[in-house]
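> tool_call: predict_assembly(chains=two)
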Amino acid sequence: TTRTPLFLGLDRNDGFIPQSDSTGEMIVGVLDTGAWPESQSFDDKGLGAVPSNWKGQCEVGKNFNFSSCNRKLIGARFFSKGYEATLGPIDETKESKSPRDDDGHGTHTSTTAAGSVVEGASLFGYAAGAARGMAARARVATYKVCWLGGCFSADILAGMDKAIEDGVNVISMSLGGGMTDYYRDSLAIGAFSAMERGILVSCSAGNAGPSSFSLSNVAPWITTVGAGTLDRDFPAYVTLGNGKNFSGVSLYSGKPLSDSLLPLIYAGNASNFSNGNLCMKGTLIPSKVAGKIVLCDRGVNARVQKGTVVKEAGGVGMILANTEANGEELVADAHLLPASAVGQSDGDIIKRYLSSDANPTATITFAGTKVGIQPSPVVAAFSSRGPNSITPDILKPDVIAPGVNILAGWTGAAGPTGLAVDTRRVGFNIISGTSMSCPHVSGLAAMIKAVHPDWSPAAVRSALMTTAYNTYKTGAMIQDIATGKASTPFDHGSGHVDPVSALDPGLVYDLAVEDYIGFLCALNYSQVQFTLLARRNFTCDPSKKYSVTDLNYPSFAVPFETAIEGGGASASATSVVKHTRTLTNVGSPATYKVSVSSETRSVKIAVQPESLTFSSPNEKKTYTVTFTTPSMPSGTTSFARLEWSDGKHIVGSPIAFTWT
Amino acid sequence: EEQLKMEKTTYIVHMAKSQMPATFDEHAHWYASSLESVSDSAEMLYTYDNVIHGFSTRLTDQEAKSLEGLPGILAILPQVRYELH
């Protein structure tokens, strides 16, 4: 990627992180749509021999040979039996029955995690710079489990099975399914097994935001990643006939529109269909849109497809207006016709102009790439949000990372829009999603693991979480673009990753397999459920009191139940919830003191003890936090933050309260 | 109705490895034997060694119900489709 290394501060540590030989020992396994091995990001120049413990293979298939792999792309496998069993044989005229990526998504995610440095990367000149993965010297192993018709659990399990056997250090999965209990969710089951073997599993949180309870991949042994913006934009200005200007975004690169104003029409007024405003295929009347710029509403069909629909109907340009679902979030696309995406408020103003002017006109001008955009990051509207619908006591997502307008490697088999009509071919593409933020964290985790090879997956995640930031330099909370207001831990988790701080977190909240087993006991897992998830017979100790609040998680979710007395909620009833945590010293001897800040006075937060002294490495100290609250109306939420500091490190944890 | 009965679904079959009869040397043979006992035609798609103990296969409703009743079968879960994010 370009810009994200700088945005994440990796340039500051360039001297020791990317050059370190140990990062070359790290292997990131990416379960996705495969890899385009000819991508410059898979160049293996300067890399040493393949790590000696590597057991993976470069599987041969259509358009994919042994020689497709090298010292960067060290493994490539494909899994299609589950897919073919359900949807029939793969149409090899449309996709390769091999590890080759015909889609682009897998090349984008794997090069984001661990692509080599490529000077002079850009998409049509946009986002130009040196592109590199987060762990630029780490190795990539690709497991193709996703095909044109989706990703099937039989194949995903097979991919994870092999990735574990092959010897990857990190598994990156930018995919998800419905919300189901851990013992029925193949991703959670596979991730548990990976975690047991010391492999960190990083997954995308999902793109179902900004709705609450919209998260995927919420198992506590998975690192769940939401998406934020960078400080980079691709402005495309819309000028109306009334002289008003609006700033949208676009990655259009073809012939610009003329300077003169062109007729403008609302798609809803150029269609006989009730959903004509959405510019769905076949809904626009060519005689009404020919030679005009068409305003389409965002939603339902792909943004780039709307542009094609306008173009095919004879339109010369498109303004794509956000609706309430996306608010002011601007996602740039490499449209096939001059187009600009504008926010909801600007879209509404343009629509009012359209309905009030007898001969509305407009033009669009493209301004390339702008950096230094503030505020940044902001939480992407599409990024899935908590609370956690499977285990409300575990706060998810864990962190956010860059996931909007991300440049990374692309397939040579599809154009940047992914549309069949797009015959352009590019080495890099700019796309958005929690699919893009997940591999950022996967690569950063590989980098941290390289520097701290003895750290468990939970310790690596803890380092990323407790050092994440949730405010700007001004002190203001990171914004949520869906609302334009301050985001909450249900949107950003512990905050935005800060990998440089994560290398030296001071203390970590560690977790071992037995801690997760205790967590499952707390969930009252049956013997069968245990075996399904953890492949073992385990009987929880009946004399032991298991509690989800004792899972040594680096964040706190505290769901209070409204007390019921005499058939109604009692205003005087008090709830008390106690959490226990253990901190492990991974820094120098130091004394840490706790501080708590809260936006509510309704919850009394007591930490015991208030000071922890660590005198040796790996020393562990336990503390308890007691939350006491009176009854509140159901649906109330509030947030707080707990920090341990020795004056040098800040070990931060978000706290989310809900009353149900 | 007959056609529906014959329609196959992809399942992930979870086995209790500890319950493998002593007559088998390898769990993969036990999986295959269990599958063969309920279906003449079902093929194993994958056997899993690390993430679960079990295998994936295509079964009719009836075959799935028969398999469910065999010793050592923990659960038979239908395959699920996931989406890229």
